[in-house]
Specification:
The structure is a single chain. The protein has three helices and five strands; from the N terminus they run H-H-H-E-E-E-E-E. With about 180 residues, the protein is an alpha+beta fold. The strands form two sheets. It has a three-stranded antiparallel beta sheet, with helices on one face. A two-stranded antiparallel sheet has the order 3-4. A hairpin with a 2-residue loop joins strand 3 (about 155) and strand 4.
């Protein structure tokens, strides 16, 4: 089978044509110059891919925490805001259950490294009529803050991490005289 070219012969033939091309140009490249191009490209692309992967990871974690937060906030505000615990509390702050709601939300959001803040406001007008003694609608603003990972990483004195804080807010308005009703 003299017409059949074996792989080793074909490799020799391509090497000879390659060498003849470089002899014409007068320059013979070093052995690995043409093969190392992918290594350089990989060294440029891999850090970008790592940053994109971290952004995607943080975004998915934040969306998951936001979905959980949106589900538990109305339930906890209805349960604790309408009938706040009054044992050992002064009468002036009976209607404001922000502290209890914040503690309940913090325990409901375990597993996520988030900061919870709860503030409340009422829609009552400053009037001296008899109706001002009746509690009015109360709005609880629950805010969740999350620092993207890695936020506290430091290598050789250089702070690595995202400088931003992701924030999600949910406001729930309730009527303290109608239990279980969200306005």
């Amino acid at each position: 089978m003299p017409d059949e070219i074996l792989p080793s012969e074909s490799c020799r033939q391509s090497c000879k044509s390659h060498e003849s091309h470089h002899r014409v140009s007068g320059r013979i490249p070093p052995l690995g110059e043409e093969r190392a191009q992918a290594t350089v490209e990989m060294a440029v692309v891999v850090p970008v891919l790592i940053v994109l992967a971290l952004i995607a990871y943080n975004l998915m974690l934040f969306l998951s925490a936001s979905a959980r937060f949106d589900r538990v906030v109305p339930d906890i505000v209805i349960a604790q805001g309408v009938s706040p615990q009054t044992a050992g509390v002064d009468p002036g702050s009976v209607l404001d259950a922000s502290g209890v709601i914040q503690a309940q939300l913090a325990s409901a959001m375990e597993g996520y490294e988030v900061e919870i803040e709860v503030s409340s406001s009422s829609s009552e007008n400053a009037s001296s009529s008899m109706l001002s003694l009746v509690g009015s609608l109360r709005t609880y603003r629950c805010t969740m803050r999350m620092r993207p990972w890695p936020s506290g990483l430091s290598i050789a004195g250089v702070e690595l991490g995202a400088p931003a804080v992701l924030e999600h807010e949910r406001a729930v308005t309730i009527d303290p005289w109608r239990p279980g009703v969200v306005v």
